[in-house]
Design goal:
By secondary structure, the protein is mostly helical. The chain is built from 9 helices and 2 strands, in the order αβααβαααααα. The chain has helices spanning 8-11, 48-66, 72-92, 104-107, 115-136, 152-161, 164-174, 178-197, 205-228; strands at residues 30-31, 100-101. Helix 2 crosses helix 3 (72-92), helix 7 (164-174) runs antiparallel to helix 8 and helix 8 runs antiparallel to helix 9 (205-228).
Length: 237
């Protein structure tokens, strides 16, 4: 039956305070690897707190192995942010109206369309920018001068950056966050080949300025995108 009663904002008198469009967005069901509704081993409903705790525990050994000299608190903070990002992204990167299978190995993977892949791409870019600041004593500041795009990887990344506005508009029009996820994943897939093929800090002149500008712009785009999705960002992972 259609809902005919007052909405939550109407019930609590928040209509005047919360200006904007209010629209119900339907969503599908989370399934287990067997294709059945996602449940605990005992058959109960999985709570979000339990899901996030398990994600952290699965990530923690990898963090400890990579950062053995970090404090336990720092290791757990990294694991928590990666785990939360992985679970949130796995939910939002799907078309909301469809059912999807929840698979730990897939959503925690460092490669592919996952939260950790996007988080690591941003960590990689931030590391490059920190190294530049360490070497020069000042942070990189992009100028308004035209870029020199010689390598195909530079051109591909620059063209992908130009699509960000359209991606945000599409999400706003459709109320489907997976379109933003698809864009950020595609941007990361353009940045990483650029990073591998185009030496950044060893470049000089216009090439150095162009590549650092592409790095800074990609970082800022990922930061805005991840913030829109409410995914944690890290300095190292």
């Amino acid at each position: 039956m259609p809902h005919t009663g007052p909405s939550v904002v109407e019930r609590y008198g928040l209509v005047a305070l919360l200006k904007g469009r209010f629209e119900h967005v339907g969503f599908g069901m989370m399934l287990g690897a067997d294709g059945r509704p996602f449940r605990t081993r005992d058959g109960g409903t999985v709570t979000l707190a339990a899901l996030l705790n398990e994600a952290e525990e699965r990530i923690l050994p990898i963090v400890v192995e990579k950062w053995p000299k970090s404090s336990e608190a720092e290791q757990r903070e990294i694991a928590s942010k990666v785990g939360i990002g992985a679970v949130k992204y796995a939910d939002m990167c799907q078309n909301l109206t469809t059912d999807y299978k929840f698979e730990w190995d897939k959503l925690l993977a460092a490669d592919g369309n996952t939260g950790p892949y996007l988080q690591y791409t941003l960590v990689r870019i931030r590391s490059v920018l920190r190294q530049f600041e360490t070497q020069t004593g000042a942070p990189f500041v992009a100028s308004s001068e035209p870029l020199t795009l010689d390598a195909p990887e530079e051109k591909a990344l620059a063209l992908e950056l130009l699509k960000f506005h359209d991606a945000l508009e599409r999400v706003g029009e459709t109320l489907r966050p997976h379109f933003l996820c698809e864009y950020l994943y595609g941007l990361s897939r353009k940045y990483n080949p650029f990073y591998a093929a185009c030496p950044i800090l060893k470049a000089e002149g216009d090439s150095l300025r162009t590549r650092l500008t592409l790095c800074a712009t990609t970082a800022r785009t990922l930061e805005i995108g991840l913030s829109c999705l409410n995914l944690p960002m890290l300095e190292k992972m």
